[in-house]
Design goal:
305 residues; alpha+beta; Jelly Rolls; Arc Repressor Mutant, subunit A; 2 domains; six-stranded antiparallel beta sheet; four-stranded antiparallel beta sheet; 12 helices; globular
Length: 305
């Protein structure tokens, strides 16, 4: 179970990178079916509403068997195929009915973020292992999908947000292959450091200050931080500041100069250089995209600001 520092760090990262999940399809199959799913740049997931199905992974080696109430998530949009199980499993395929809630998710900051970097090609949450909260949510989504009530799609999309977070929570608690941000969250020393950095991104943090929070020497802390997160404390802090900057730029009342000061940059020019180095475009471009509600589809031109 995550401690308070890890919970705070986890919430901060999700909030800064702005998760958006939504239900994109609700197919129903009578009998045999084969549904290829092409790979894409955003994540995908499938919740089995009724029946069961096989998921054939693109590597040609792995096959997942999903039953009613099970969920599979493809954080990196890996190609796969959904198909009916063989006739021998539960009688003839012609007599079976299958319903699936299919969804997609993306982050406003794009596919380069510590959450996705810490996740494997796929995550499976079995209904039998998921806990009562997950089962209740899955059943609520299934029930809502069958209704023709006003606001049905909006409700499903909001529930899909919660479903993804619960899948992350399940993975953090049950996986034996934790890496990156997830490995840091379950390490109490690292969690304390991340909580502090996330809470005060504009503070003039030094390795010595962060090492004190971790109760380690500067050398041991710097090495441990790099081993867990794959970057130095300064590199992580810079990326975190720029994720926050992208969020803050959505507010038209916040100027680039104000954001620069809030995030610890002495000059607006230094902030703009750091922003462009991380994101590949300037704050002005991000501002315009936010105004037109197209943060994930940046204009083709490159700003120098």
């Amino acid at each position: 179970m995550l401690d308070r520092s890890a919970e705070a760090a986890f919430a901060a990262v999700l909030g800064a990178h702005q998760l958006r999940a939504y239900i994109s399809d609700n197919p129903h199959y009578c009998g045999s079916f084969v549904e290829p799913e092409r790979g894409c740049e955003h994540g995908m997931f499938h919740l089995i509403d009724e029946g069961d199905c096989l998921v054939l992974l693109a590597n040609g080696k792995d096959t997942l068997r999903l039953n009613s109430g099970d969920l599979v998530v493809f954080p990196h949009g890996a190609a796969h195929t959904l198909c009916s199980p063989p006739d021998s499993d539960h009688g003839p395929a012609a007599n079976r009915f299958t319903s699936i809630l299919c969804g997609e998710f993306e982050f406003a900051t794009g596919s380069r973020n510590p959450i996705l970097d810490a996740l494997p090609e796929w995550i499976v949450v079995r209904e039998a292992d998921s806990g009562s909260q997950f089962r209740h949510l899955a059943r609520l989504m299934s029930h809502e999908a069958r209704q023709e009530s006003f606001g049905r799609q909006l409700v499903l999309d909001k529930l899909a947000d919660a479903l993804f977070v619960m899948a992350l929570r399940h993975h953090i608690a049950s996986s034996n292959e934790r890496r990156g941000l997830i490995a840091a969250l379950i390490d109490p020393r690292m969690a304390r450091v991340l909580e502090a950095m996330h809470a005060e991104p504009g503070r003039a943090w030094t390795v010595a200050m962060l090492a004190d929070l971790a109760h380690q020497s500067r050398t041991a802390f710097a090495q441990h931080f790099n081993e867990v997160l794959g970057v130095s404390p300064y590199q992580y802090l810079t990326k975190w500041r720029m994720a926050e900057a992208l969020r803050l730029l959505r507010d038209p009342k916040s100027s680039a100069a104000t954001i620069a000061e809030k995030l610890g940059y002495q000059t607006e020019a230094a902030f703009r250089r750091a922003f462009k180095k991380i994101h590949g475009y300037g704050p002005g471009r991000a501002r315009r995209a936010a105004r037109s509600a197209q943060l994930g589809a940046m204009p083709a031109d490159i700003d120098e600001d």
